[in-house]
Amino acid sequence: MAYGRHVPIIADKYVDKDFGTGVLKISPGHDQNDYLLARKLGLPILNVMNKDGTLNDVAGLYCGLDRFEARRKLWSDLEESGLAVKKEPHTLRVPRSQRGGEIIEPLVSKQWFVTMDSLAEKALKAVENGELNIMPERFEKIYNHWLSNIKDWCISRQLWWGHRLPVWYIVGKDCEEDYIVARSTEEALDKARQKYGKNVEIYQDPDVLDTWFSSALWPFSTLGWPDVSTEDFKRFYPTTMLETGHDILFFWVARMVMMGIEFTGTVPFSNIYLHGLIRDSQGRKMSKTLGNVIDPLDTIKEFGTDALRFSIALGTAGQDLNLSTERLTANKAFTNKLWNAGKFVLQNMPSQGDQSAWESLYAYEVCSSSNICIFVLLFNISGKLGNLKIVAATLTAKITHPFDEDDCLLRLPLPECWVVSKLHILVDVVTTSYDKFFFGDVGREIYDFFWADFADWYIEASKARLNHSEGHSVASVAQAVLLYVFQNILKVLHPFMPFVTEELWQALPNRKEALMVSSWPQTSLPKHANSMKRFENLQALTRAIRNARAEYSVEPAKRISATIVANSDVIQYVSKEKEVLALLSRLDLQNIHFTESPPGDANQSVHLVASEGLEAYLPLADMVDISAEVQRLSKRLSKMQTEHDALVARLRSHKLKSPPDAKLALGFFHWSAHHKQTKHESSSYCIAVHILVKAKLIKDARALLEAILTRAAMESSSVFSVVETLVSSYEVTESTHFVFDLLVQTCAKLRLIDGVMDVVYYLDERGFKLGVISYNTLIHVVEKSGQPGLVWRVYEHMVENRTYPNEVTVRIMVNALCKEGKLQKFVDIVDRMHGKRCSPWVIVNTYLIFGMVEEGRIEDGLVLLKRVLQKNMIPDTVAYSLVVYARVKLGDVEYAWKVFDGMLKRGFNANCFLYTLFIGVYCEEGKIEEANVLMLEMENGGLKAYDETFNHLIVGCSKVGRVEESLKFCEKMIDVGLVPSCLAFNELVEGLCENGDVKLADEMLTLLLDKEFVPDETTYCHLISGYGKKGSFEGVMKLYHEMEYKSLSCSYLILNSLIISLCHCGRLEEAERYLRVMKDRSLSPSGSVYKTLIASYFEKGDKTRADQLYSELVGQGLDLRFLSNLNGQH
């Protein structure tokens, strides 16, 4: 049917020989993979199809037929000629048009391409040289991968829209040979006339440019380019920041970089911030097909623009965000909370028409710290709001903010000092995060501060000030703090929620400029840690009282009395905030007492411990009506007693018939145990167990049986009593066997070991054969109890009943016997199994060989292996692998190779374990090339490497200084979903840090932390030392703070590395501070710490401190020879 055409037959790994017939026809002109294969092998590329879907002359007899009709006719012809063997259904991935759904047919055609290698090289260097910064940094790897493996770019598209290709052809000439490239039709015509004469006719190529090509020109083409003298181009090119989604890093971003460098000589932007994709609540990409597209305009109508912006901006850079209605609803509530807080602040400020009051309030805000006390004093003396204008006028000589200095902050009352300190911390944190583009962290920090601190606590506490009856001095302080904190919250939140914050800002009187152009809050303002700690104690006390009120169902409006017990220092600051405590905790202000010892009626009070050294006593009589409570509890007790009596009668009548009845028995059993009721006969409960098992309510049956056995053990009853009751309480059915399996397993779980074998024999005599799970469970538990003799009794009984152990049980037996040197006993039992013509599992023989290997009896293991082979009980590859492993362990690698060859000759395939074993041997010997060859063989054989395989290679390469190869293996390991061991990763980190690539090592750690990798202190030691040698103080402290979070900061090794690194960074004060930390924790600094500190002080010229450290060194008796390379003057 080839009609005279020669069809070559070729062999290539591209074909899957196990699929179908193992033979594949290829169509180079109609399949991308076939095209590449044909190019590689030099095959002709034929196109049989026209652009309208009909076949052309190349198709021979089928020429002119539609593609679908031609395929049907071809198969019909094959059947008629007897060439069709069989027909099988097979699912194909057929490409279809997204819009019309038509089947797409690939064709070979002439297109326009751009050579990319030179463009990509410049773009790669831009990132390498630091001209271009990609955030998050992990996307640099993707960027580099794309550009390092780039192919020529097809830029022509057969579409109706887009930029036309600037190519013109000559009418009557060959398009492939005669074409003109020009900026316009006029320019193209001029060029054509010069070459072909005045009468030449031209036409433009109908194709358009790829959309991404046009988009790649956007950064400069929109600014007047190619005229680089325009004002827009001079001012805005190159720009600072590009923000876009991570999914188009290559398709758009990398191409803009390449085009920008090529046409303007500079990168189009210096920073690239990649956000995640917005997905639906289930994490799916939005699509019209799924019908899960969220329309932003509809969302804005329902939740508001600010809520939508805030929800989206809270995502982490580069991480996709699941956008749900719940998230939007929560942030809409946050917007409402902000609005209501603004209303509260405005309602508690002077009226907008009272200009003098507002001037006084602003005067308070601008008072200097040296004059604030005078201001408050004069205010108290004057007692009139109008006089504040005079006071303010006298203080204009020194204008500064009252919260800018420690003295002023300390003079504020406790709640005000606390909230201002927290605000200053917030401003520092969010400013740093904004600078680093950690927008998600910024949003979460502001959200937590506003809602949890400002709204929930300070606004509520300020009500005690604002409602103060003793003049206006206290209220004015609260007003000033409210205004100061709120307006700074609006400033830091404005980039996220511009509309509501601007509206609230403009509502504040005397706003001379819009919020969006106002100055950013000042950073590094004072914070008072002691005041924050004190207010946290006050919060803890308030929470404790609130919880007690809720527990005792105290009416919200009811005020109760309280006695606060603490030492004199605590009482001093808590008593000053008596009004705040009373307001927040709903206490009776007149009946709050402060004392240093418990009150006399402590035994009739609820005792609360708020924090260390701060307690409270709440009189019970204030919270509940004791007589009413007694009456309520009596009624409840009477009702429960009636229910109890009815249940007892029902249980004794043995009328349990259904699962609901059985579950009722289970509930009653737990109730009676909880209330310490007298014991009842167990027959009803045993019947309940049977019913529950029969109804397949195994979890409930297990719970009831466990409760019965636990009760029997507590009451010193024999387990036999339960067994006998179970045997006699119900007729024998299939479910009965499961009940007794459940009984043995539960006995094992409860460690009721004594007499358990008697239970097994008892059941066996009555025909109740236990299942394999029961035997295995029993062996596991008995082995843990340290009774090896009993283990063997169970195992022998198990074998006698022709019930065979599972893998874990066999391994337990072998390991236990190896430790005791009694493996022969296990061998004897296996022999008995052979003698009884039992068919033990392959795994039994495998673990038996394993046991012999562990004992060092390798020859015996080989004998057993030979015997098993002779009896046609072929072991799995693991048995061979263990013998090979033993030889390697003993250092006899040559013999291990012989066993390995024998294994292959017997038809066993080499497994990953063996490859990993020999790769490990080569890596230990430093033979990296040989290890790489084995790794390649392993991959070519279709075997997937273990994590241990990669670990060997990472460690081996790192130890011989081949850090780049080690890094590649680590990256490859991560790509296949594996995580390196701590040991292997530490070797890699050490190598990278020694080469000065500490930043790369840190990035690798960040990448692995996302994959649940758990670093140890050695990892951080290497990284800290690496940053220290680089002189990066920020890098050192970033890692130390990470370790503080992971509770590793107290480690001896960590602190030593930290001090040495701080010395390398020139931060001797910080180094001394952590040296004191070590001494406070009774940790002796290493000699290297002293050496580095002494050397640093010598370089600084501080010989006095160097001598002091030397004296400490001598006093500790450390070896002083390590100081020999220090300054000779020492």
User: Helix count, per DSSP?
Assistant: 51
- Distance, first to last CA: 97 Å
Oligomeric state of shown chains? single chain
Alpha-carbon Rg, integer: 41 Å
Q: Count of DSSP E strands?
A: 16
Structural class, please?
A: alpha/beta
Low-confidence stretches: 366-400, 673-680, 729-736, 834-841, 1124-1130
- The geometry reads as globular
Q: Which percent range describes the beta-strand content?
A: 5-15%
Q: Helical percent range?
A: 55-70%
Q: Give a short account of the largest sheet.
A: 4 strands, mixed
| Rounded mean pLDDT score | 77
Strand order of the largest sheet: 14-13-16-15
EC number: 6.1.1.9
Keywords: Aminoacyl-tRNA synthetase, ATP-binding, Coiled coil, Ligase, Nucleotide-binding, Protein biosynthesis, Repeat
GO cellular component, one term: cytosol
GO molecular function, one term: ATP binding
